[in-house]
Amino acid sequence: MTTNPSPQIWLYDTTLRDGTQREGLSVSIEDKLRIAHKLDQLGIPFIEGGWPGANPKDGQFFHHLQDQPLQQAEIVAFCSTRRPHAHAATEPMLQSIVAAGTRWVTIFGKSWDLHVTAGLKTSLEENLAMIRDTIEYLHTQGKRVIYDAEHWFDGYKNNRNYALQTLETAWLSGAEWLVLCDTNGGTLPHEVSQIVKDVSCHLSAVREKNSLIHDQGQNQIPQIGIHTHNDSEMAVANAIAAVMAGARMVQGTINGYGERCGNANLCSLIPNLQLKLGYSCIGEHQLNQLTEASHFISEVVNLAPDEHAPFVGRSAFAHKGGIHVSAVERNPLTYEHIQPEQVGNRRRIVISEQAGLSNVLSKARSFGIELDKEQPQAKFILKRLKELESAGYQFEAAEASFILLVYEALGLRQQFFEVQGFHVHCDLVEGKETTNSLATIKVAVNGKNILEAAEGNGPVAALDAALRKALVNFYPQLATFELTDYKVRILNGHTGTAAKTRVLVESGNGQQRWMTIAVSTNILEASYQAVVEGLEYGLLLYSQGKPILS
Amino acid sequence: MTTNPSPQIWLYDTTLRDGTQREGLSVSIEDKLRIAHKLDQLGIPFIEGGWPGANPKDGQFFHHLQDQPLQQAEIVAFCSTRRPHAHAATEPMLQSIVAAGTRWVTIFGKSWDLHVTAGLKTSLEENLAMIRDTIEYLHTQGKRVIYDAEHWFDGYKNNRNYALQTLETAWLSGAEWLVLCDTNGGTLPHEVSQIVKDVSCHLSAVREKNSLIHDQGQNQIPQIGIHTHNDSEMAVANAIAAVMAGARMVQGTINGYGERCGNANLCSLIPNLQLKLGYSCIGEHQLNQLTEASHFISEVVNLAPDEHAPFVGRSAFAHKGGIHVSAVERNPLTYEHIQPEQVGNRRRIVISEQAGLSNVLSKARSFGIELDKEQPQAKFILKRLKELESAGYQFEAAEASFILLVYEALGLRQQFFEVQGFHVHCDLVEGKETTNSLATIKVAVNGKNILEAAEGNGPVAALDAALRKALVNFYPQLATFELTDYKVRILNGHTGTAAKTRVLVESGNGQQRWMTIAVSTNILEASYQAVVEGLEYGLLLYSQGKPILS
C-alpha cells in the first residue's frame, strides 16, 4: 500500500488519553512512553499524549518525551476550550497545553446546545466565543489546531444550526481539522453517513459565503475527522461510514480501549480501511506489525489480550480440524477474509504438523536461533510444544519459557541451580489480619546443597523469597530481579478446586521484562515452576552478556 | 414495544450451535437445556438447538427437550444438504434431523461455486439438486424449512448468477426463509446493503417468471434473513444494514459467542433494532431481562462476562465522578444513548451515595429482604459494601456472599461453625509427579472443638476436604455439597506475588448453585474464605428449609 495512489486517511490514536478512561486500566509515565514509541513505529501520524492541564502525570509525560522524541509521529496535547468569561491568554489549562511544547494541539468544545446551557450554564454565544478565543490564542502561540466537536451527532440532531455554527467558528478561527465526535456512542452508521455529507455541503456553502476572506487560508475548507465510541457496537462501522462520506481523519485506540464500551478499535479500522477499501493509512511493513503492537500494548497496560478480537486475536484465523483444514490449505481465501500475515497474525490449524513445525522454526528464528526442519531437535521441540499446549500451556505470552525449551532441546540449557524440593506451610489463626506463610527450600548449586527458609505474604511470595535467599550468594545479579506480574487463570472451571491452573509470571531486571508459564492442578506447584523459570531465564540473560529478547 | 405497529424482526438464536464453536466454550446437555429455556423466556422466536446428525450430544438434547418443552419458542434442528449423489430419503444425517422431532429445520447449502467444485468436488448442477432434494424431502416429512445460504456474500461476488440460482432453487423447493450468510465475516455494511436489495429485486423478478406456479404458495416470495460473523468487527452493523435493506430474520448469538471472532451479538442487535430503529423483536418486559440473560448464559458456559460489552456490560453505563455526575443525574439522556433500565442494566455512579443505597435496597428486595433506607442497618450494609468493593470484592456474581452480609447486618447470620485456624503444608520433592498438600483444620461446632486433617491435590483442595470431614458429622447434608467452580483473578497485576487475589467459588447441592467471593493478598486465605462462605450458605439454605436464591 505504500506506493498506493489511493486517498490517505490520517490516523489519530488516543489510547494514551481516551483509552486510559477504561475502567481497570492504569498506566505509568514509563508505560505511556513505551506505548507512544510503539505507535510511532506502527506509523500512526497523530498520537494524542494526554491532557496536561487536567492531569499532572500527563504534563510530565510531554516533558519526558522531549528527551526521547518520536521518529515520525506528531504528538498532540489535548485540552478543552477556555472557561466561560475567562481570558484564553491567562487560562491556566491553556498555559499548560502551550508548555507541553507540541506542534499540534487538540481542543474540544461543546456542539450540543443543551450541554452549553445546562452543563456549562452559559449562553450559546459565549460558547462560540470560547471556541474562537481559544483557537485564535493557540494560533498566536504557533500551534496548529485540531478541533474535537464533543457530542457532535446528538447536538446536530437536537439543534442542527447551532451545531454547524460551532464548527464554522472553529474553522474560521483557524482549526485545520474538524473532528465530529459521537461522544455517547449512540449513533448508527446511516445517520453518521448522512450527517457527515451534510457537514461537507454546509462547509462548502460557507466557503462561498466567505470567499473574500483570504488570511490564514480560511477560504480552504478544513478536513473532517471522526471520533466514535462503541456503546452501540458500531464504533468501527460508524468510522468507516464517515470515511466513505468524506472524513479523512479517524480517531481511535489500540484494542478499542476506552470509557464504558470503548473507542473505535484501530486494530480493526486499519485493516478494513487499507485492505478492504483501498485507503492508505500506514506502510505495508507496519501493517504486518499490527498483531504484535496490539499484544504489546495489552501487556503494557496489563490486560489479557482478547483472543477473539478481529484481525489480531489469537482465534481470528483459527481453523478446526477435518475436511475444512485441507480446503483451507488448498485455497485459504475461500475460508479467510484476508491473509493473516497481512496483519502479522497467523493461521492456526491445530492438526497440521507442517504448519506447527514452520511456526516453531520462525519463532526460534525470531530469537536468533536457526533451526532446520529436518533437524531431529526441531521435531522434538514441536512434539514437546504440542504436549504442553494440550496440557494448557500457551507460549504466545511466555516467550522466555519457549526459549528455555528450545535451549533444552539443543542441549544448551545451563543448569544454574537444581531445586530438590520445597516445603511450604501456612497458618491461619482466626482474628489475625493475614495468613503467615513459611517456605523451606532445598537447592543444589554446583554440587553444593543449600537449605533456606523465608516467610512471605502467601505461599508463593514465601517460596520466591526463600529461593532468592538461597541463590543470591552464588548469583548476586539476582538482587536486581523482581517479580513484576503474576497472573492466574483456571483452565477447566467446572472441576472445582482440582481444576488446572495456568500461572504466568513476569520477571524483570530493571532493563527488560520476560514472561514464564507453568500449568498444574496444583496452583502452588504451577506458581513455583513459573517463578523458577523466571529466575533461570534472568540468569541466562546475564550469562550470555546480552539480552536474548530484544 | 409490545403494542408497537412497527415491522416485526424474527430473531433466530444460534448460541447452542454456532455459539459453541467458540474456542474454549463447551456445554453439557444440562447447560444447553438451561440456555434454551432462558432464551425462550427472553422471547426469542427461533432457537437453533444443534446439528443432530453431526453430534450425538445434540441428538440427545432434542430428546431431553421433549420432556421439558419450551413455552413460546420454536426449537430448530440444523443440518447440511444431502451428500453429492446420495438419496435424501436414505441420508443418515437427514434421518437424524427428522428424528429430532422439531417443526422447523434449518438446512445449509453451498452458494459459492468454488466451494462446490473445489470443496465438495461435485458439479454446480449437482449442488442445486442437493438443495432441491433435501428441502423437498423434508417437506414430505412435514417440516418447515429455513435455508442458510453458506458463504453467500463471497459466492455472490464471485459468481452472482450461480449464487442467485441456489436461492431460487431453495425457494422453489419450499424454503420459507432464505438466510444470507457472511460465513467468513469479511463483508462490509455497504456491500451487504447493496446485495440484499439486489436479492429482493431478483426474487420479485423470479416470481413474475413463475407466476403460474401456485402449489405450495411458491408464488409468494420467501422472506430474507441475515447471518453475520464478526471477523471485520462488522457483524452487528452488517445485520442492521441487511434489515434496513429488507431482511426480516436476524441470526446471532448471546454475547456474540461463535467461531473465530464470533457471531452477530444479539445483546447489541436487539436494543439497536428495537430502541433505535423502532422494529419490534421481543416484549418490553423481556428486553428488561437482556442484561440478566447475558450474564446468566455467560455463567452457564463458564466464561467471564465482558464488562465492557455494549448495553449489557457492567461498564456500559458507568460514569466517572466530578461535574459529569451531577449533569448525568440532572439529565441522563445527555450522557447516555439509552436508559440502562430498558435493557435491565444500571447506571453506575461510584460517588453517588444515594444511588448506592437504592441499589442495596433493590438488591436485598430481590432476595425477599425488605429494608428501609432510613434503617441504620441499610446504611451499615452500604458502608460495608463500599469498603469491600474498594478492596476488590464484586457482588454481581457472588450473591450468596451478599446475602450473608445482609443477614449479618440484620443480626440474622447463624454461626453453624467457627473456624479457629488451619495449617496447610505442601511438599515438593523433585521428580515426583505432583505436589502433595496436607491441611489440618480446627473448627468449633456448638462449643465443641474438632481437629481434622485431610490430603488434597493442592492446598485449596486439601483445606476443603479437611473442613468437610470436620463438619459432616454435625451437618450430614454437607455430603451433598460440591465445589462446582473455582475462579481466580489477580486484581493489581503489577505488584507481583503480593498482588491481591480475588477468588470466586461456586458451590452446589444438586438442586441449586451459589457463588461466594473473597479477596486477599494471600491466594490461600481468599480461597479458604470463599469455600467457608460457600458451605455456610449451603447450610443456611437447609436451615431455612427453602432456597433463598430462586
From TrEMBL, chains A, B:
EC number: 2.3.3.21
Enzyme class, spelled out: transferase
Pathway: Amino-acid biosynthesis; L-isoleucine biosynthesis; 2-oxobutanoate from pyruvate: step 1/3
UniProt catalytic activity: pyruvate + acetyl-CoA + H2O = (3R)-citramalate + CoA + H(+)
MF annotations from Gene Ontology: (R)-citramalate synthase activity; 2-isopropylmalate synthase activity
PROSITE patterns for the chain: AIPM_HOMOCIT_SYNTH_1 (PS00815), PYR_CT (PS50991)
Keywords: Amino-acid biosynthesis, Branched-chain amino acid biosynthesis, Isoleucine biosynthesis, Transferase
Biological process annotations from GO: isoleucine biosynthetic process; L-leucine biosynthetic process
Domain annotation Pyruvate carboxyltransferase: ranges: 9-288
Domain of life: Bacteria
SMART domains the record matches: LeuA_dimer
Protein family: Belongs to the alpha-IPM synthase/homocitrate synthase family.
Protein name: Citramalate synthase
